[in-house]
Amino acid sequence: MPFTIAEIAQSLGVPFEGDGSLTVFSVAEPASASADQLALAMRPDFAEGLTQGAARAAMLWQDADWQGFGLSAAILAPRPRYTMSALSEMMDPGQGYGAGIHPSAVVDPSAKLGIDVSVGALAVIGPDAVIGDGSVIGPQVQIGWQARIGANALLHAGVRIAARVTIGERFVGQPGACIGSDGFSFVTPEKSGVEKARASLGEEGNTASQSWARIHSLGSVTIGNDVEIGANSCIDRGTVRDTYIGNGCKLDNLVHVGHNVMVGEDCLLCAQVGIAGSTVIGQNVVLGGQAGVSDNLVIGDRAIIGGGSGVLSNVPAGRVMLGYPAVKMDSHVESYKGLRRLPRLFRDVADLKKAVSKLTGND
Amino acid sequence: MPFTIAEIAQSLGVPFEGDGSLTVFSVAEPASASADQLALAMRPDFAEGLTQGAARAAMLWQDADWQGFGLSAAILAPRPRYTMSALSEMMDPGQGYGAGIHPSAVVDPSAKLGIDVSVGALAVIGPDAVIGDGSVIGPQVQIGWQARIGANALLHAGVRIAARVTIGERFVGQPGACIGSDGFSFVTPEKSGVEKARASLGEEGNTASQSWARIHSLGSVTIGNDVEIGANSCIDRGTVRDTYIGNGCKLDNLVHVGHNVMVGEDCLLCAQVGIAGSTVIGQNVVLGGQAGVSDNLVIGDRAIIGGGSGVLSNVPAGRVMLGYPAVKMDSHVESYKGLRRLPRLFRDVADLKKAVSKLTGND
Amino acid sequence: MPFTIAEIAQSLGVPFEGDGSLTVFSVAEPASASADQLALAMRPDFAEGLTQGAARAAMLWQDADWQGFGLSAAILAPRPRYTMSALSEMMDPGQGYGAGIHPSAVVDPSAKLGIDVSVGALAVIGPDAVIGDGSVIGPQVQIGWQARIGANALLHAGVRIAARVTIGERFVGQPGACIGSDGFSFVTPEKSGVEKARASLGEEGNTASQSWARIHSLGSVTIGNDVEIGANSCIDRGTVRDTYIGNGCKLDNLVHVGHNVMVGEDCLLCAQVGIAGSTVIGQNVVLGGQAGVSDNLVIGDRAIIGGGSGVLSNVPAGRVMLGYPAVKMDSHVESYKGLRRLPRLFRDVADLKKAVSKLTGND
Question: What CATH architecture does domain C3-91 belong to?
Fold first, then answer.
């Protein structure tokens, strides 16, 4: 896809300097860029590579001395990382899924496909499913009975949408994402060892064997607009009502969202995050990679949970949390520093005991 | 599916009061229930919503004042959460997978399918596979060479059962579950850095580069009756004998079970649990979400491992464990409280040092 | 597959003793071996089972008294675990995927398949994909536009290789592995709460709501020779250049490798490991199960990160790390011991305070 520097700058709404008619076909890192690529050097330390590569044009930060790097043209972005969003959209060649309904796809006659929907090879679309205009259904995708997907969705290969799931507009599903698996909800005829251990804070579990009866998930999953779900991530359906993911949420790979969970708008759930059943997550919450949140908790708006942390209690709005169990970040850092200095503390106390023992004459 | 209150109560084996002829079509939470839904309010704090919703009937706890909530009928369950199991089974509309063998499925002529087996669109059933009566094989499922699955299985979309896996009756596989991937077993010609670090408890690793030779997994996986495996979970095959999952075990989403692992009956493995190779798990063990168990360990019957914990040593029967490395829950709580109070302890010791220094005159 | 003991020993390059003409068909653990199986007892404690089983031949350690176990023949391996690699390869019956291109597979006419490539039922091979000689493409695999896979690959059922991914020779992909999902890269118009919290080490997050703009992944994934990727693992594509996995790396199940990550040669990434974006991993690094590495870090060659550890800072070469945040293993062990002894320390300090208080007369 050839673009002139002037076209790119105009499309991104940022200024350019130099030869706006210069044409580029793709983007590259500075050191490996060829003459017809746009080098990306969004911070001064990245710009060093420009002299090693052959780029004639680059996207740089706002006040960059582009001529000093020997360039013929430069796009100068006030917040280059943000501008990268629109630039990368322009330059993305995509996955090359074909247009139209592939003849090998199995589309139930009762499914309703909008205008310009494409369906890839060997996809399965179930009875009464509804797919909005302009959606791209990749190869080997499965969409269940009565599932509803809004306009302009992009479902990559092997995404699975179970029965009665409802998804808003502009949804992106990475390969193997699974929306609408059954909740993990089992019950014993009598109180289980877990119920007892929770009630007693750790008293030993049961002595008798117990087997588990299944609670079926009668709810489904509702997902808002502009949501992305990562590769091989799983969103379980609710027990009675739907599990809910709000508008603008982005979930990374291998994330687990349990039954009945409610996630507010614009949350980021990084890779391998797990949220146990019935927990409520506020708006604009960020969960770092591998963070876990226990069941039936409330996480306030704009909370940030550090990667690898385990949240075992409610979190107030705006709080930055770290550790296991997760605590306020500065408390964690203080405890952690103390932990590192413990060996010295043990020596100090041993010395004090000797000194005091001498003073009291109890030797 | 219309049911009268009397029918439901009879089927569940619990009493009802009021108008048993009242008909409901599905279940709902109290506040959002319509007049033809059965509201579920299994604890007093859930019942408040009844006045906001339009339900005329509800399932409540044993001695609930159902008339006080303005209902016409009520099902009164002694342990409502347990009764929910049978109720949810009655009310589950399912995934709508069709009956019979879908013409797009690829079923090897040597595969043996029992009576009333259904096979979904684009499923693949390999040579000499055996599938028990009444099993439902969802769309895009893959069942390998000589795999054997018992009666009344439900394999959701995209489940993969590898060659020679043996599964008992009433198995449930959530979408994307993978049974029988190869074990992660690699060996170096000379002792590896890991072997050395384990032997020396942390002495630095190797200085020479090493590459890894693959040990093939000649065993497979054997799974008992009444087992459920969650979405995108993986059970590796054994090296020489089969990896084993006992009767009644329930595994949540994104769980990893390594090669040669043996899991006893009726265990719960919550989401994102990982069990490393050759570990033996007893009966009725519960592993909380994201818990990990190291290789070659023994976890006793009825042990409960808290979510996010990392088990690095054997666990006796009935023990409740928490933390990393996991220890007895009350030890963890005590250590953790100490950690929180460490800053004060450092101040106390500093004060003591000053006081003692004054006393001894060493200032 | 029948083999004589002499054939096996010759093929493995290790000596045998006794009746080399004895024939075995498969391998077994000592206690369950039948008369025509080769028992594997690679350590003295495993050999006890030989008397319970019916094996007439076994693979044992170098100086084993095989006649004392009542055997007719024995293969004596200097490093039996290493010899197991070649033996298991000989004895592996495989998954039974058929030869040739299955008629139900959807192979784009522009795809280039090498000599002796087999393609399983319902696989999809996209336009301009290139697959090397002797590769086995399992059922329901998907290979994207312009993806290139080297010779002798083995892609198990449901592997997904996205567009423009490049993979070397002898690649093994376990079921459901996903190579080339989009990176998790989102940006806010203004500085995000995470950026602020990182800059301030934990100052509270934003007060205003923010939504996320997507940065498309214009790079792809490059994978070297002799790499194995586990079941349902995910490797994200890079933002501008490719994410990179070096020769000889082995990744277990449910592993996440973020965008732009570079992994050096011969690394082991155990199950459920997560590596965040742009981190660089050296050669021969071992990451234990569930370990996590934060973004933009450098992990030195031959480092070993214990299972469940969370790496939040750079790691020098050869270092053995444990804990959260991960520290040198012996520091972690020392801190941990201190933590366990904390309750006693609190008592000691309380006693000292009393004693000092008496001495100073401030009671």
Answer: 3-Layer(aba) Sandwich (3.40)
